[in-house]
Amino acid sequence: MAASGRTADFPRQRPRRLRTTAAMRELVAETSVSVSDLIAPLFVREGIAEPVEIASLPGVHQHTRDSLRREVSELAELGVRAVVLFGVPATKDDVGSGAFDPAGIVQLALADLVSEVGDSVVLIADLCVDEYTSHGHCGIVRPDGSVDNDATIEIYARAAVAQATAGAHVVAPSGMMDGQVAAIRDALDGAGFADVSILGYSAKYASGLYGPFRDAVDVTITDGGDRKGYQQDPRNRREALVEVHADLAQGADMVMVKPALAYLDVISAVRAEVDVPVAAYHVSGEYSMIKAAAANGWIDHDAVALEHLTAIRRAGADLVLTYLTRWFAERAAGASS
Ligand code: PBG
Fold first, then answer.
1. Is residue 108 part of a domain?
2. Which residues span the domain enclosing 67?
3. Is 71 in the pocket of ligand 1 (CB under 6 A)?
4. Is residue 134 within 8 Å of 94, Cβ to Cβ?
């Protein structure tokens, strides 16, 4: 039976009957969002004495090592099961050595968190070098300005081992270099970290929605360029499946689509294609748009925030990386007490 014939086949159906009471709506809801689906992105900055609020990401901070420990233990109390860590180093260089230095800020912070929360929270380390490079690109830049794929994945492999050594349960390569997952898997296995898993930022688009994040990690692409030479073109959906299959073939345990809302069709296509957990990143610009419009009184913050998360889950994401995690967890805790 063709889908288009369904209404005509059941002329006595009245869908509004199932919307009559809140209990009825709850009963028939097809999609749920729960705290255990959410992953909180967190920033830790080297060399600051107090946490610094990020102007373009209201409510989100660059943490000190101490304030990060507190934040993660509070999130754990609220039922949050995973965080993804980004580092902001005090100094940057050509190759982003802070990303693989055992004394780099994220490695130190991971070790702190292992002692603070142990295995009760999944510690995910974003694996890229753009926060650590003086030029702001996600890899090693050649004299002509292009990013050298194969030299870059060697650096990623070193960063993965440094992060695993520091206690990461999951590493999440976000640089969109070809072959990065295989290089990281080989390096982890070779260093005795067969149990550390890989969440690939498999379908990551060259998006205008990362603006506030670049403030959060103090990244400016100094050549005035962009990431279109390695991140995906927003016009392409099938290409996302090529990327996802490549990552799975190389050993990714989970895959991600990023950003989320402008790419719900991609999330849905990936969900239909693979059986591993699918994550989606509700990125900084998506969060900031809610905050800015709500601050102006133009939208209802809570209603829109929940609608965003629900839509991402409805499209098929199992996991959502979102700056809304703490808000959602507090709200859920308030509702149940
Ligand atoms: C790269 C990275 C970026 C984000 C996560 N990892 C920025 C970029 O590719 O420019 C963006 C996340 C967000 O906007 O919330 N290390």
1. yes
2. 32-336
3. no
4. yes
